[in-house]
From TrEMBL:
Enzyme class label: oxidoreductase
Residues bound to Fe(2+): 97, 99, 103, 141
Protein name as catalogued: Acireductone dioxygenase
Catalytic activity: 1,2-dihydroxy-5-(methylsulfanyl)pent-1-en-3-one + O2 = 3-(methylsulfanyl)propanoate + CO + formate + 2 H(+); 1,2-dihydroxy-5-(methylsulfanyl)pent-1-en-3-one + O2 = 4-methylsulfanyl-2-oxobutanoate + formate + 2 H(+)
Family: Belongs to the acireductone dioxygenase (ARD) family.
BP GO annotations: L-methionine salvage from methylthioadenosine; L-methionine salvage from S-adenosylmethionine
Length: 183
């Protein structure tokens, strides 16, 4: 279930608030400039499907989003627990970083956790199928796909190399609960 848990960035043990209603999550994230939308993600996909199948299934939504936001390129991250690269892939995003581009991700299967740090708080946002999240450029955040990653997300870019992470060097991510997907 899509869930937003908000913490003070100085205290990773005591959540200030936990939200599960879409409207509440959308409004709380809008308060820090993060757009959160729900898009139809009901196309049938097999667990082992990769970029080609995801793009074919979601071409209409991709075209609509490209027209609406002016994206210049997309790619797909499709993770499966048996993927031999799972641990390395998880490690890439586990430390706090920013990007020069917006971070726009449309989850069409599975789930993953964004941790967005803003205004002295951490917004721990579990994204699930149908969630579209859009972090403005330079938003401090990290992302955990969990020890047995399972998700497919379409990534939209406005600038080439916009996905490259700039690490802040802050170890805050190590103090917050890691993502453990509910069975
Ligand atoms: C949810 S897609 C994979 C993670 C990613 O692209 C990113 O930038 C995380 O911060
Ligand atoms: Fe990112
Ligand atoms: Ni990132």
């Amino acid at each position: 279930m899509t869930t937003l848990t908000i913490y003070a960035d100085s205290d990773a043990r005591t959540p200030l608030q936990t939200l599960t209603r879409f409207e509440d999550i959308r409004d709380a994230l809008a308060g820090i400039g993060v757009e959160f939308e729900r898009w139809d993600a009901s196309k049938p996909l097999k667990p082992e499907d990769g970029a080609e199948e995801v793009i074919a299934a979601y071409q209409d939504a991709i075209d609509k989003l490209n027209r609406k936001y002016g994206f210049v390129t997309i790619d797909v991250v499709a993770m499966h627990p048996e993927n031999p690269q799972a641990e390395a892939a998880r490690g890439k995003f586990l430390a706090e970083h920013t990007h020069d581009d917006f971070e726009t991700r449309f989850f069409v299967d599975g789930s993953g956790m964004f941790y967005i740090r803003s205004g002295g708080k951490v917004y721990m946002t579990e994204c699930t199928r149908g969630d579209l999240i859009n972090l403005p450029a330079n938003t401090t955040h990290w992302f955990d796909m969990g020890p047995k990653p399972f998700f497919k997300a379409i990534r939209f870019f406005r600038i080439a190399e916009g996905w490259v992470g700039k690490f802040t060097g802050d170890t805050i991510a190590d103090r917050f609960p890691r993502f453990e997907r509910a069975a």
